[in-house]
């Protein structure tokens, strides 16, 4: 028998490190989108996104909004997400650049590696130039420990 091994501790560690960061942050983005469109006087769209987002990947919804909204409104949506939503959009985009269907997951375990964080910082600097990459890392760290 292994000294200091505990099946309960192993189970808890597995549950913690196996969580998907995109799944953890997606509900917060749904809430953000709902509030954003409510504040813009579009309650029907807000509710449609909130309810319909349960059946679609929210990153895909935001991608479609880029085509549907005028550019200033879309830019405001993205910029405000840096302050009022979890870092779902950068996390999901980062995950998508390194994964192929059907393995669409970005675990807390992967996030704990410094090399992964460095690649994420590079991704944010390249794709979200108005978003402080250091702040993005802090937010992901916060959300990875949230639940």
Oligomer: single chain
Beta-strand percentage range: under 5%
Largest sheet, in brief, is: none
Number of domains: 1
General shape: globular
Report on this model:
The protein is mainly α and 147 residues long. The chain has one domain. Helices cover 72% and strands 0% of the residues. It has nine helices and no strands. Helix 2 packs antiparallel against helix 3 (43-52). 23% of the residues are buried. The mean pLDDT is 89.
Q: What secondary-structure arrangement, pairings included, does this model have?
A:
Elements: H1 7-17, H2 21-39, H3 43-52, H4 58-68, H5 71-84, H6 88-98, H7 108-111, H8 114-127, H9 133-144
Helix pairs in contact: 2-3, 2-6, 8-9
List keywords for this structure.
147 residues; mainly alpha; 9 helices; 72% helix; 0% strand; globular
Q: In short, what is this structure?
A:
With 147 residues, the chain is mainly α. The protein has helices spanning 7-17, 21-39, 43-52, 58-68, 71-84, 88-98, 108-111, 114-127, 133-144. The chain is built from nine helices and no strands.
């Amino acid at each position: 028998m292994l000294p200091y091994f505990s099946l309960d501790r192993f189970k808890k560690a597995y549950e913690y490190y196996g969580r998907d960061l995109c799944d953890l942050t997606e509900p917060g983005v749904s809430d953000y989108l709902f509030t954003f469109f409510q504040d813009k006087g579009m309650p029907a769209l807000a509710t449609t996104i909130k309810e319909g987002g349960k059946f679609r990947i929210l990153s895909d919804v935001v991608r479609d909004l880029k085509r549907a909204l005028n550019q200033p409104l879309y830019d405001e949506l993205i910029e405000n997400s840096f302050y009022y939503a979890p870092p779902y959009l950068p996390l999901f985009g980062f995950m998508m650049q390194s994964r192929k269907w059907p393995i669409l997951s970005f675990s807390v375990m992967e996030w704990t590696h410094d090399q992964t964080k460095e690649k994420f910082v590079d991704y944010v600097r390249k794709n979200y130039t108005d978003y402080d990459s250091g702040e993005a890392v802090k937010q992901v760290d916060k959300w990875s420990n949230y639940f």
